[in-house]
Amino acid sequence: MAQNEYHVIPQGDRWTVTLHGVALAVFADMKAALNRAIDAAHQAGMAGHDAQVLIADTAQDPRTKWIFGLHPYPPTA
Predict the structure, then answer these.
(1) b vs e for 36-63, b when ≥16 Cβ sit within 10 Å of the residue's Cβ?
(2) Which top-rank group of organisms is this from (predicted)?
(3) Rounded distance, CA 75 to CA 68, Å?
(4) How buried is residue 17: exposed, middle or buried, by Cβ count under 10 Å (0-12/13-18/19+)?
(5) Which H or E run contains 40?
(6) Is the pLDDT of residue 58 over 80?
(7) At a CB cut-off of 8 Å and minimum separation 6, what does 30 contact?
(8) pTM of the predicted model over 0.70
(9) 48 neighbors 1 (Cβ within 8 angstroms)
(10) Beta strand spans in the chain (E)
């Protein structure tokens, strides 16, 4: 099963959602980017792919934020 890791990355005053290193969308705030990444990961999961969302903190170290099949959709927080 293919692994889809959606990354939410800060870039200046914007937030970018990427998949396999390719930018999918840019948002003005983290929450909007995170919601889009979770929506995309959920769709991938529903199509039978392992999917998760990672978010980069200020040190650019990614941490897992949401995993298909483990966390609720839509997210509760």
Answers:
(1) bbbbbbbebbeeeeebbbbbbeeeeeee
(2) Bacteria
(3) 11
(4) buried
(5) helix 30-46
(6) no
(7) 8, 10, 15, 55
(8) yes
(9) yes
(10) 3-11, 14-19, 22-27, 50-56, 62-67
